[in-house]
């Protein structure tokens, strides 16, 4: 699987890096920078192999996204992941804007302490939203079904047919 994920700017400076497996060293960051970003000739292939390490990379505007692995992975899956990461970064720019609003006020630096900024940022994780939807699922379905006329009639017909087949009902009728 993916051993590391690196995000570079157009100059080759690392913006974000995360190494997930021990087989990927910190030198992979520099190898990609030298052989792809600062290469004398433009690298056209989206997959570059350097010292038995595969770099799957995508360039968008001035940002490079690179997934690094030493294993044989499904290239389509890795590229789908890279494009989804790009989409998620775009979708979460609201959080970055919230941070900038708290740090700067009319261009004057105000508060850059991490602890203080955590109290101002109201971003909730995706997991909590998913959990909330799962918990509300049965209630939503029940509320929807109660208001539907055809569901109510179907329940009445089913109740009547079951009621007529009861041995106790046969004796009393």
From TrEMBL:
It comes from Albula goreensis. This is Uncharacterized protein. InterPro entries: Adaptor_comp_med_subunit, AP2_Mu_N, Longin-like_dom_sf. One of its GO terms (cellular component) is clathrin-coated pit. The keyword Magnesium does not apply. It is found in: Membrane, Coated pit. One of its GO terms (biological process) is protein transport. Keywords: Coated pit, Membrane, Protein transport, Transport. It is a peripheral membrane protein. The keyword Acetylation does not apply.
